[in-house]
Design brief:
- Helix 9 packs antiparallel against helix 11 (341-351).
- Strand 16 (473-478), helix 16 and strand 17 (496-499) form a beta-alpha-beta unit.
- The protein is α/β, with parallel strands linked by helices and 515 residues long.
- The strands form four sheets. The protein has a five-stranded parallel sheet with strand order 2-1-3-4-5, sandwiched between helices.
- The chain starts with 12 loop residues before the first strand and ends with a helix.
- Helix content is 49%, strand content 18%.
- The radius of gyration is 36 Å and the shape is elongated.
Length: 515
């Protein structure tokens, strides 16, 4: 909240004039300027209404001498730290009142206007006071938010300490046993296995923290491509299988036969639904039922993960995705964790242009998490199909030699180029490359620079010295990408320079342009 409602008593001006007629006239003047005002019968009533809420106080100088004005001063002096209620005094002309002088000394936010005055001056002063009061309300909201965030962080740190102590205790105990008692091999293996489980648990906690940190700092990059939600949901179910089996839960996948395609990062979307399934498994009693349904309306896909678990109190539905929020009544049910999984879910879904919502009839009534993601338009799907077709045709007619001492890197690149239609050969060193070129002249050669004994620069020099290989296009494929590296590569006789790992679009463009 950044402001208070327009009809809130906190935005009204409280009046106390000398006569009821003066009060009614002032209310009418302010109303014409769109300012809500209410008159008070005496100073005691003014103090009482101030406790309910006010944006400013407008009083005649004579009210300062009222016996009940002491209550008003007491209320003004006991304001909370964020509040400094503006007070406007309408003073008699030409009179230096002792009461006004004392009020100026005691109140910091006091404005004195001599009467009679122009209506414009009165309205202008009241509007200035209202603007200042609104800024105070914004400050109050900020302070309340900071206090709430500080409380959440305190609770989170307590949870973090608890969750880290849980695996540390058995780790320390196991180390003591292994050090002091020299257990037999079977016992030692059992202790090692337990220690491995506890370390894995700690790594998962730390990984979750780092993941949230990267997302909140904008350090995460999505690898967007058309993704089938059917495949994403099935992959997520496979990842969550250990928790589902441990709870003996029934998992139902309600997936329509018509595929739903979104533009997204398949790994991250799988992480989203795996987190939701893990949450459902943790907060559902043994032998519960979890249903994942997928529906679409032509514009958006809607995936719902529903469980028969402990549910969410209505008051918590709006904050379950916030950082450091945990539902205290359900924390004992969950099998460990920091309670930041839903924060990750919301951040990743929003990065994909979607939204996530939680609904629950109440405690012990189950929970439904709904994720909405925009579908890929048919034009995008067609463009994607055209791109894939182009990639498959790009290598046709090319004889390609891949030279790299890293056998896995060489073999996988050759296989990819083969899928793109090229005829491929592989060499794992300079001598093998020269022998392969002597048998069949390649149209393109992808050459690693950092090979042992004889590197890519030497091979490029030998190729350029052989007139039979004059038409072979040389492509340097290396992890070095500084300006000086590129200059040396081009000077060695290479035609192109690609940074490892090779980008599919770059390969497609290169093969297309070198026909």
């Amino acid at each position: 909240m950044t402001d208070v409602p327009a009809r809130s008593p906190e935005l009204r001006v409280l009046l106390r004039m000398v006569t009821a007629k003066d009060g009614e006239m002032t209310i009418r003047l302010l109303a014409r300027a769109g300012i809500a005002a209410e008159t008070c019968a005496d100073a005691a009533e003014l103090a009482k209404e101030m406790a309910v809420g006010a944006a400013a106080v407008l009083i005649a100088e004579e009210i300062l001498a009222d016996q009940g004005f002491g209550r008003v001063m007491l209320a003004l002096r006991s304001q909370p730290a964020w509040s400094d209620l503006p007070v406007i005094v309408l003073a008699r002309s030409g009179v230096d009142s002792v009461a006004v002088t004392e009020a100026l000394e005691q109140l910091a936010n006091l404005t004195v206007l001599e009467r009679p005055m122009r209506v414009a001056s009165l309205v202008s002063s009241v509007r200035t006071a209202l603007a200042a009061r609104r800024r105070q309300y914004q400050l109050r909201t900020t302070l309340e938010g900071l206090r709430e965030a500080d409380q959440r962080k305190t609770e989170f740190l307590a949870t973090l300490a608890h969750e880290l102590r849980n695996p540390l205790a058995p780790l320390r105990t196991s180390l003591s046993i292994l050090t002091e008692k020299q257990p037999d091999e079977a016992t030692a293996q059992r202790l090692y296995a337990m220690m491995d489980r506890q370390v894995t648990h700690m790594v998962r906690l730390i990984d979750d923290l780092m993941e949230v940190s990267r997302i909140t700092r904008g350090k995460i990059e999505l690898r967007l491509a058309p993704v089938s939600l059917h495949r994403v949901v099935r992959d997520a179910a496979e990842l969550s299988k250990p928790l589902l089996m441990a709870g003996r839960h029934e998992l139902v996948l309600d997936l329509p036969p018509v595929p739903s395609t979104v533009q997204g990062d398949g790994v991250r979307l799988t992480q989203v639904f795996a987190n939701l399934l893990n949450n459902a498994a943790k907060f559902t009693p043994p032998q519960g039922r979890i249903v994942v349904s997928l529906r679409s309306d032509g514009h958006a896909a809607r995936v719902q993960v529903s469980d028969s678990g402990v549910g969410i109190p209505p008051a918590m539905l709006g904050s379950v995705f916030d950082m450091f929020v945990q539902i205290s009544d359900t924390s004992r049910v969950a099998q460990g964790g920091l309670g930041i999984g839903l924060t990750l879910v919301r951040s990743l879904v929003e990065l994909h242009g979607g939204r996530v919502m939680a609904s629950s009839p109440g405690v012990n009534e189950g929970t439904t998490m709904t994720v909405e993601l925009p579908l890929v338009p048919e034009t995008v799907e067609q463009a994607t199909a055209d791109t894939l077709a182009t990639q498959r045709r790009a290598g046709q007619g090319h004889r390609v030699l891949v030279v790299d001492d890293n056998r896995d890197a060489a073999d996988s690149l050759a296989e990819l180029l083969g899928l793109m239609g090229a005829s491929t050969a592989v060499a794992y060193g300079v001598e093998e490359a020269l022998a392969a070129m002597a048998v069949c002249t390649p149209t393109l050669a992808f050459i690693d620079i950092g090979m042992p004994v004889r590197d890519g620069y030497e091979l490029a020099g030998l190729v350029r010295a052989d007139s039979a290989l004059a038409d072979t296009v040389l492509v340097a494929l290396t992890g070095w990408g500084q300006a000086t590296d590129r200059e040396r590569i081009m000077a060695a006789g290479f035609d192109h320079h690609l940074i490892k790992p090779a980008d599919l679009d770059q390969l497609t463009e290169l093969l297309d342009t070198r026909r």
